[in-house]
Specification:
four-stranded antiparallel sheet, single chain, 2% helix, mainly beta
Amino acid sequence: GLAQGSTFTREMSLAGLSAALTQDRVILGDPGIFSWSGGILDVPGQEELVYKSPEEENYYRYLGYAVELLHNEMGLFSLVGSPRYQYVGCVTVLKEVPGERRWEEIDFVLGKQIGSYYGAEIAVSDLDQDGVSDLVLIGAPYHYEPKWSGQVFVCRFNKVRYM
């Protein structure tokens, strides 16, 4: 018979496939952990898992394929790509819990086209150069239209709805 209830936790780890840096920390995307459902690692000097996909059965989500940090007056945010989430891809918005070494999910944005790999790349920009990141670029390299392929989605990051 088959073994019951086992999954790969860290055996398929791809820690560092994506990374985001600040002055005092490194955030690593790790899409291979937990049977490819993925997660992120916060490395303050030693490796520590700080967020993983809340849906245990969501294998092959690839959470952490892309990761980017955004800091503004509301705090520190991590934008995490999951290009295979429900076949259309997703970018999850995590907010650092003040005083704790963990992140909580506060929002997400779903892709619109199956197989587009929405969330495979994420970039942030300070459009008005005020020192606060307010623009998020989300790549979908396999997005297809009849005369072109690949697409970059532009989202504003604000206080009302995160993206």
